[in-house]
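Same chain as my last thread, 262 residues:
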Amino acid sequence: MNPDAPLMTPAEAAERFGWRRVLAFGAHPDDLDFGAAATVAGLSRAGVEVTYCVMTDGDAGGFDAHTHDTIIERRHQEQRDAAAHLGVSDVEFMGERDGYLEPNHRVQSQVVALMRRHRPDLVIGMHPERDWTRLQRSHPDHLAAGEAVVRASYPAVENPFAYPELLDQGLEPFHLRWLLLFGGPHIHHNLFLDVTGHEQDKLAALRHHLSQHPDVARMEEFVLGTMSELHRGAAAPTDESVRYAEAFHLVEVNAADTISGF
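reply #2:
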């Protein structure tokens, strides 16, 4: 972990970085809830508007072959219910096939369109770099989702000549300020958000994804243990209370001193 990375609450981060509108991308239903649900809960409670975009339908998920013909509808509803618990009322689905996501121009143009329509201060996304310490974090769809979002964030979303058909739809370019990535290698963690008090919100959101959890108790133990370990690694050594954190790679895409193209 990065010992110099700051630790603050989601509300403090929103105030410090000017986050009022957030657009969050996940590859599958439940990805955002595993990676950032407690943070999303904290942001929503602080008055930040959060929109979810799920890039695939999660149609390759689940464990019951007898009900698999309804898995897309079930996973969509699971995600809506989980998001609603966190204060997120707007959930969009791109409808890509689970396991087949690629960061191609067809997908990337959809991401750019969503960014231009919502014009967020912050985009939350999956990290495009593989984490070799826990390969499950780096499902190929996760990496593809991360790459598509990063490519869209610069330069496509701010370039009027990228996907010119979007201009005909009234989707004007804009400069995205902040990108917050989760699920990547620990070496890139440069922001820890203290989500103590929202850990149960995260568990409640994940419980809505029951089609994906054959052992709910073990899942919850793992999630709480991971968040507790992240906080211990980020907090002062004298803090012995049980507290929880989520970790991210924060990227300032366009800073005050940024020159277009540099």
